[in-house]
Design a protein that fits this description.
This protein is an alpha/beta fold. The chain contains 15 helices and 15 strands. The strands form 3 sheets. An 8-stranded mixed sheet has the order 5-6-4-1-7-9-10-8, sandwiched between helices. It has a 5-stranded mixed sheet with strand order 12-11-13-14-15, with helices on both faces. A two-stranded antiparallel sheet has the order 2-3. Helix 3 packs across helix 5 and helix 4 crosses helix 5.
Length: about 375
Amino acid sequence: MIDARSDSVREIQRSAKRIVIKVGSSTLTRDGKLRPRKFSQLAAQISGLVHDARQVVLVSSGAIAVGSHRLGWSHPGRSIPEKQAAAAVGQIGLVEMYQRRFDRHGQHIAQVLLTRAGLEDRERFINARHTLLELLKLGVVPVVNENDTVATDEIRFGDNDNLSATIVNLIGADLLVILTDVDGLHSEPPTPGQKKPELFGVIERLTPEIWAAARGSDSSFGRGGMITKLEAAHSASLSGAATVLCNGARADILERVAAGEAVGTLILPGERLASRKHWLAFTTRTRGAMVVDDGAATALRSRGRSLLPAGVVEVRGDFGMGDPVVCLDTRGTEIARGLVAYSAKEVARIIGRSTKEIVQVLGYSNGDEVIHRDDLVILTP
């Protein structure tokens, strides 16, 4: 474990010029009631960062909580339509609250609503990137949220933790700051009234021990626990960004993080994936799966090879040419994702065949590879 107090380690926070800040409902609300003071504190600190020549994107939860409050509910909605209705009412109120508070500091904001379905399309993904980067260039703070009004369980990111990591990839951020209701990642979940367990200061790599420590709880108005925050940190690390998990209730927390103070848990960046491969690994939804034999699994993992028909042993699902699919080893472990050059029916016909037999079997060829290595991202070592 790296010394969390090390100035050199925390330099990554001080030097970050492009920052994504995610704030959850647990920070903005308490027992379903809004905390206006938190909105004011966020606006003041983020405006200060922008005035300090930082570029900031704010990924904010809270639309459903705000809408539920305005509708007089004590719950966030008991059905998907109710939640979507609350989001429709609350999104206006959420942006109004931010607008008034940022105005006090002369800071412009912009509302950006996204869905996974929109970003799965590569062209829309690039368009979203251009919009966000232009807003940042203009000195505007984009306030991003998932579009809960139209999102369903099948297309939503699932939580704004993962959405924030997608934004890190979209804009090429240096740092992801996740504000939560605990001080960071503890060795086990803190229990109210008892001594707090050990806090992980700096994490070099997300080991099984770290994942095991991430068991946590969530609130009725929130969708993400500590596991989703580690998933976001993992995704951000593969975009070349560090992540700080910290307590949004602490005074001047964003200023302290940006100043390089040893607050919260700092998760260091890993080996960076190209943006397109990161999009493939974390943003797209797969349309099917292929099981590969042990030789092909080794070639994919260790040798950076393409997937050839000879290495495929089973096809699952009904995907088309160009669709994203999962590659599983014979034990069912997801080892890679990629864009296929053939449909599921075509792959099923050439399973186990040599590349020379593709034309003979299909009557044509889209190339020797079922998935070319340029269209493939490895997910497990």
